[in-house]
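Ticket reopened. Same input as before:
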Amino acid sequence: MQQQISVITLAVAALAPSRRFYVEGFGWRPVFENEEIVFYQMNGLMLGTWLGATMAADAGRPPTPSGGFALAHNVPAEAAVRPLLRRLAAHGGRILRDADSPPHGGCRGYVADPDGHAWEIAWNPAWTIDERGWVTFGS
Amino acid sequence: MQQQISVITLAVAALAPSRRFYVEGFGWRPVFENEEIVFYQMNGLMLGTWLGATMAADAGRPPTPSGGFALAHNVPAEAAVRPLLRRLAAHGGRILRDADSPPHGGCRGYVADPDGHAWEIAWNPAWTIDERGWVTFGS
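Engineering reply: fixed in the latest deploy. New output:
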């Protein structure tokens, strides 16, 4: 079986605040959007932001607040971590943890998107990111 | 800025039940593991399963149950959806929704991993998956 994740779908309370965070904060462009979902073509998988009630009904479970996971976006230089955290906070994000160095090195901070989904913004010099955005484990 | 997700990290209560689900259920191989985290090299990003208390402390937020998001693993044929759901349920997963056809076509069901993280197992003939596991939006 391919070691493959096809989609990450985040529950959102409304599309507009989420769209502002991803389009104006991260600077990403949707590949598809309608009245209930927005898709972004990512590095080999899709990121979806979907109205939470519809999404929960589709999965056959009650709507639940976000928790228990985090996404990370790695940047190519330590100096890029803080500016991106600030830019995301300026577009509806909420800083959870300011940037500092974790025990394994590098630099990272955390910001929650408008629906509480945690994003780690990290510089990790041990992990390579190629020109396609493909991230490879390194130690 | 690259439209890129580097890591998806899932909070886990203990490593062993989660490892069984991913290694024996999905058939994936860890690229790294220690006493608090297991990493899997995925299609251009990393999947991490990390002890929830440590993860929450790192993110500067209280530990929270899983909710508000889902991951998807797409398979190449409709006939592959149900067997994978059953295999995952046999390795510690819990079926949330049996496989059926969503309004947009294809076939999908949902299974929760041992920590409640929702996985959609889907056949979506509109989205291509190449030999590297790279998933591309199609409509």
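Residues 73 and 121 of chain B are 5 Å apart (CA to CA). DSSP finds three helices and ten strands in chain B. Please confirm and we'll close it.
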